[in-house]
């Protein structure tokens, strides 16, 4: 395992709430794991292992990197969220002295670990070896303008990969296959309730069938297959579900248009149809991934 974390601008939201640390922890402890089936399906398809040098754009708090590293991959992460990146650092680089680990270290791969904060992706290793897999596990297609920062990020990353490297993009599935879409519509309604209505990037919108293909085309990538993965969202209770969902950022425009307490109240009400007798919340969802080549 050779984890690397890099800070980079990938659609950062300057109006993020003051409790950014709490929201990042909610993401890491509640929401991020909901996408674990997507990570595993992609890694199975791409045969991720010791020969993989992976760049993860929008790596969040590092769960997808951790899963890849457990398969033996060399992993590099890029994210614009300082708080999420700090949590990824704690997961993947808990020992500050890894860079200087002695040759007899029980974890020799850790000697090659790096933490870069130069604002852009970097070569996969100190030897300048190129990546052979680029992943984007932050699903697009559920908020207006959510792919705008992704295209330039891909254009910057592709030159660091080998010719013919694989690039995997992900998105929400069709609204009719995603129970969570009904809850996310609360975000759109509240944002539009403002006077004048909020229309800035970040406002919820239904997923379009060709969202991923459009990003691939604009980034100069060639599609080479796709797949769909079931990723049900399961929570211990409504309170956990509200915290997890608000940590995604998909409700930020609604919070700005009204206030957080109003959004929390209406999201909780929208979750009632998905609450089971034992108090848990269960929402079936389907996510889509598109495999491209550079």
Task: Describe the strand arrangement of the main beta sheet, using strand numbers.
Answer: 4-1-3-2-5-6-10-7
Order of helices and strands: EHHEHEHEEHEHHEEHHHEE
Structural class category: alpha/beta
- State the major sheet: 8 strands, mixed
In angstroms, what separates the terminal alpha carbons? 25 Å
Care to describe what's here?
With 294 residues, the chain is an alpha/beta fold. The chain has helices spanning 20-31, 36-46, 63-70, 82-92, 150-157, 180-192, 211-218, 238-246, 252-257, 260-271; strands at 2-8, 53-57, 74-79, 114-119, 131-140, 161-172, 222-230, 233-235, 281-283, 286-293. The strands form two sheets. Strands 4-1-3-2-5-6-10-7 form an eight-stranded mixed β-sheet, with helices on both faces. Strands 8-9 form a two-stranded antiparallel ribbon. Mean pLDDT is 83; it is low at 11-16 and 96-118.
Write the layout of secondary structure elements.
Layout: E1 2-8, H1 20-31, H2 36-46, E2 53-57, H3 63-70, E3 74-79, H4 82-92, E4 114-119, E5 131-140, H5 150-157, E6 161-172, H6 180-192, H7 211-218, E7 222-230, E8 233-235, H8 238-246, H9 252-257, H10 260-271, E9 281-283, E10 286-293
Parallel strand pairs: 1-3, 1-4, 2-3, 2-5, 5-6
Antiparallel strand pairs: 6-10, 7-10, 8-9
Helix pairs in contact: 1-8, 2-3, 6-10, 8-10
Tags for this model:
294 residues, alpha/beta, eight-stranded mixed beta sheet, 10 helices
Would you summarize the structure shown here?
The chain is α/β, with parallel strands linked by helices and 294 residues long. The chain has ten helices and ten strands.
């Amino acid at each position: 395992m050779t984890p690397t974390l890099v800070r980079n601008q990938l659609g950062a939201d300057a109006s993020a709430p003051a409790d950014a640390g709490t929201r990042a922890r909610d993401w890491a402890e509640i929401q991020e794991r909901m996408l674990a089936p997507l990570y595993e399906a992609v890694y199975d398809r791409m045969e991720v292992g010791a020969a993989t040098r992976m760049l993860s754009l929008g790596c969040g708090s590092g769960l997808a990197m951790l899963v890849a590293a457990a398969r033996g991959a060399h992993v590099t992460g890029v994210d614009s969220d300082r708080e999420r990146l700090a949590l990824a650092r704690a997961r993947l680089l808990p020992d500050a002295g890894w860079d200087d680990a002695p040759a007899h270290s029980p974890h020799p791969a850790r000697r090659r670990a790096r933490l870069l904060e130069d604002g852009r992706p970097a070569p996969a290793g100190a030897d300048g070896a190129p990546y052979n897999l680029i992943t984007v596990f932050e699903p697009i297609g559920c908020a207006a303008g959510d792919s705008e920062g992704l295209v330039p990020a891909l254009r910057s990353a592709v030159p660091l990969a080998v010719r013919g490297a694989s690039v995997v993009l992900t998105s929400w599935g069709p609204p009719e296959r995603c129970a969570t879409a009904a809850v996310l519509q609360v975000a759109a309604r509240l944002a539009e309730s403002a006077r004048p209505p909020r229309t800035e990037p970040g406002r919820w919108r239904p997923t379009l069938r060709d969202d991923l293909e459009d990003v691939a085309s604009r980034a100069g990538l060639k599609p080479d297959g796709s797949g769909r993965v079931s990723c049900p969202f399961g929570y211990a209770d409504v309170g956990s579900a509200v915290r997890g969902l608000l940590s995604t950022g998909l409700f930020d425009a609604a919070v700005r248009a009204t206030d957080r307490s109003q959004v929390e109240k209406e999201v909780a009400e929208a979750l009632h149809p998905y609450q089971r007798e034992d108090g848990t919340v269960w929402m079936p969802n389907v996510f889509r991934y598109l495999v491209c080549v550079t």
